[in-house]
Amino acid sequence: MPLLRYRARIAQAANEPNYWLLGIALGLVVLHWQLCWRLTGDFNQISLELMGWSGVVYCVWQRRQTIVLSSDLPSRILGGALVALLLVRSSYLKSASVAVLSVNSLAIALAIVLVAVGVKHLLHYQRELWLVAIAAFPVGELINYVDRVTHFSVITAQYSHILMWYMGFPVQRQGVQLLLPTGTVEIYPGCSGLEAALLSLKIAAIFLLVFPTHWRDKVLVPGVAIASALVVNGFRIVLLTYLVSVKNMTAFEFWHSGAGSQVFSLISMSVFSHYCQQLMPSELAPELAEQPLQGAVATSRGQK
Q: What is the pLDDT of residue 3?
């Protein structure tokens, strides 16, 4: 009898379009991540996309009782064609950058929305689409441009110079160079902590989209994201400069481009994540947490 019950439940689930749609979405996302890992090996990008899709799942789950699959035939055809295009493109793609592959993630989300609710209700799921777009956005392609605009490398050099001066090092600064009597370190955009700051900003944007916050938090959260990356990376620059001054190049390579370089990124991300975690229970009022659900109910009733 239990076996027959399970078989009946499986048969019932197989006839539900929700489960088919969930299976298609999960398969496309996993295929996209596998393609990203095989062609780029960018673990940071895959982790952030996982975070973005987790936010999508959370947002959809919050209003699961009010979602109605009401797509029309043209929208389903368009979404199906987009899925077919993604599958064909993925099978023939032999090499690609993160910027090229990031388009796939947004195309998957768009195809799912088209098949589920159609073009008419596309704007009702703009928050989920924004989550996917922000998570997939390739920040690595913009580091040099952002550095030219913000002079982040110079700011990092100034901050590291102050740290070393207070620690008693006989250090001087010339632009982005830190000079000690026995060695010199030049801070390039890739070592300035800018990438960590941009990644933290992406996490901040995902956090602000998923969880309702007060207006002051919309300013504080991005600020803390940038500050945590800058402060932690400043200590990394101090360590690298010291290692150069004592001619310990093995340790320098480890902390500069080896596994040690990820330790400081992990610390800055942990500090920022801890801040967000502390913010959620203390700052999110119950009435704010109910607002998105009320809006979703009103929207769904309007659709019906």
A: 56
- For the chain, which residues score pLDDT lower than 50? 1, 13-14, 282-304
Do 160 and 55 lie in one domain? The reply is no
- Identify the pLDDT of residue 163: 92
134-157 pLDDT, tens per residue? 998 888 778 888 888 889 999 999
* Helices vs strands, H then E, count in the chain: 13, 3
Residue 230 inside a domain? The answer is yes
Write b or e for each residue in 274-293: b if 16 or more Cβ atoms lie within 10 A of its Cβ, otherwise e: ebbeebeeeeeeeeeeeebe
What is the residue range of 170's domain? Answer: 142-291
Burial of 16 (0-12, 13-18, 19+ CB in 10 A): exposed
Residue 300 falls within a domain, yes or no? no
Contact indicator for 98, 139 with CB cutoff of 8 Å: no
Instruction: Count CB-CB contacts under 10 A for residue 13.
Output: 11
Does 67 lie in the same domain as 180? Answer: no
The continuous run of DSSP H or E covering 67 comes out as none
pLDDT for position 235: 93
Is 164 found in the same domain as 266?
A: yes
Residue 73 located in a structural domain: yes
Q: Are residues 212 and 85 in the same domain?
A: no
Give residue 17's pLDDT. 63
- Helix pair 260-283, 215-245: axis angle to 10 deg: 160
Co-location of 193 and 234 in the same domain? yes
